[in-house]
Write a structure and sequence with these properties.
- The chain has 15 helices and 16 strands.
- By secondary structure, it is an alpha+beta fold.
- It folds into two domains: 262 residues, BirA Bifunctional Protein, domain 2, CATH 3.30.930; 90 residues, Rossmann fold (3-Layer(aba) Sandwich), CATH 3.40.50.800.
- An eight-stranded mixed beta sheet has the order 1-5-6-11-10-9-7-8, with helices on both faces. A five-stranded mixed beta sheet has the order 13-12-14-15-16, with helices on both faces.
- A hairpin with a 5-residue loop joins strand 15 and strand 16.
- The longest helix has 18 residues.
- Bound molecules: adenosine-5'-triphosphate and magnesium ion.
- The site of magnesium ion (MG) has 2 residues, from loops.
Length: 421
């Protein structure tokens, strides 16, 4: 283990790259706000039991991927492996169900921990933008969420987006389908992977979702949940499609999508893009009408999605989409030998006037200060030499046009703004 190496599957966001995250964040906040979603922040860790109940103990997440440990008080603690359970816990703990519904919330940059084999787009700590809507049973919300994710991603410039939707029914119709699927798989169990052998017993639906090619072959002709939906689920799914049709976005019904979490009911969806390394799921979500009840609350519908920020950034990079990088400085103050204090006062004044400003803090020569100012991309330099200092003045220079003016220190901010244009 190298002390100067971050743990496997984690990543730093460096100061020179953080604007990319901030740009995404601002777009995500705006998208959420446009539809009435407000931010929720929940702890990075929760009681393990929350995820056992909330995520489901037949899922890959719970079975293989959780970061779980005992704290010093002998409590079992788990680092959040997804965002919904924590949001649902907070919804119940703070009686948010007593307010006018629906309760719409989003989380941004929420760290998510999964013990997975690291590879492109798969980390052990990643960050999610997620939306949750509690208390709304209508398919219009399912459609709203799918559209919000689609428009956000396409607005960022992600191309080749495909929206895949499915319905996995509800506790009334799904058991019938379970039985049919189990019947179909009964003769094929021996050819399934080890995981799917246990999925066959515990949650046969998840065999449909297995990424192992031989399992995918086995389920190619499996019966479809869509043929087993009860009237209510069928009507809900059809309403969702009506809304999506009206919106004009392209989408596909794919009865193979079941999603990795046990809490889903009715709608499930994924936004997928084709990359050079194959298909990449950027966003996944669905309806979870039983989650709140499963966590001890009164029955309460819910629907949401999670979107991985690292995956979005990876796609933007692969597609060569440049994100706007804000300037580090508007004004860089340079000074001669003894005029450090005047320079400092000027920097302070410029900052107070709302400009991004700085000066040399490393003892550079005037020439080196200019070189450094250039490197930072500052639009304007403000120089205090002996003559300027004697007159309470400062010499401003637009680094691009080379236009120069000398003005009283008191006018420096206004003049710098004029020069920047
Ligand atoms: P996958 O099938 O790729 O494992 P998942 O079904 O486990 O995805 P979700 O639980 O739906 O993913 O998480 C929502 C989103 O979070 C994903 O669509 C993806 O963008 C992102 N995500 C999930 N796991 C990781 C990971 N290990 N590293 C980076 N991003 C991830
Ligand atoms: Mg996964």
């Amino acid at each position: 283990m190298l002390l100067t190496q971050c743990p496997k599957g984690t990543r730093d966001v460096l100061p020179q790259d953080s604007y990319r995250w901030q740009y995404l964040e601002s777009k995500m906040r705006a998208a959420a706000a446009a539809a009435g979603y407000r931010e929720i922040r929940t702890p990075v860790f929760e009681h393990t039991e929350l995820f056992l109940r909330g995520v489901g103990d037949t899922t890959d997440i719970v079975q293989k991927e959780m970061y779980t440990f005992k704290d010093k008080g002998d409590r079992s603690i788990t680092l959040k492996p997804e965002g919904t359970a924590g949001a649902a816990r907070a919804f119940l703990e703070h009686n948010l169900y007593a307010d006018a519904l629906p309760c719409k919330m989003y989380y941004l940059d929420a760290p998510v921990f999964r013990y997975e084999a690291p590879q492109a787009g798969r980390l052990r700590e990643h960050h999610q933008f997620g939306l949750e809507c509690f208390g709304a049973k209508e398919a219009t919300v399912d459609a709203e969420l799918i559209l919000l994710a689609y428009r956000l991603l396409s607005g960022l410039g992600v191309s080749n987006l495909s929206v895949n939707i499915n319905s996995i029914g509800c506790p009334r119709c799904r058991p019938v389908y379970h039985a049919a699927l189990k019947g179909f798989l009964a003769g094929k169990v021996d050819s399934l992977c080890a995981d799917c052998k246990s999925r066959y017993e515990r949650n046969p639906l998840r065999v449909l979702d297995c990424k192992v090619p031989s399992c995918q072959e086995q389920v190619a002709d499996a019966p479809s949940m869509l043929d087993y939906l009860c009237d209510e689920c069928r009507a809900h799914f059809s309403q969702l499609q009506d809304c999506l049709n009206l919106s004009g976005i392209p989408y596909r019904v794919d009865s193979r999508i079941v999603r990795g979490l046990d809490y889903y009911t009715k709608t499930v969806f994924e936004l997928i893009t084709a990359t050079k390394d194959g298909n990449l799921t950027v966003c996944g979500g669905g309806r979870y009408d039983n989650l709140i009840e499963q966590l001890g609350g009164d029955p309460m519908p819910g629907v949401g999605f999670g979107m991985g920020l690292e995956r979005v950034l990876m796609l933007l990079e692969q597609e060569g989409i440049a994100l706007p990088e804000p300037p580090l400085y508007d004004v860089f103050v340079t000074y001669m030998g003894s005029h450090q204090s005047e320079a400092f006062a000027l920097v302070e004044g410029l900052r107070a006037a709302g400009l991004r400003a700085d000066m040399d803090h490393c003892g550079r020569s005037l020439k080196a200060q200019f070189k450094y100012a250039n490197k930072t991309g500052a639009a304007v330099t403000a120089t205090i030499g002996d003559e300027e200092a004697a007159n309470g003045a400062v010499r401003l220079k637009n680094m691009q046009t080379r236009e120069e003016t000398t003005v009283p220190v008191a006018d420096a901010a206004a003049e710098a703004r004029r020069l920047i244009g």
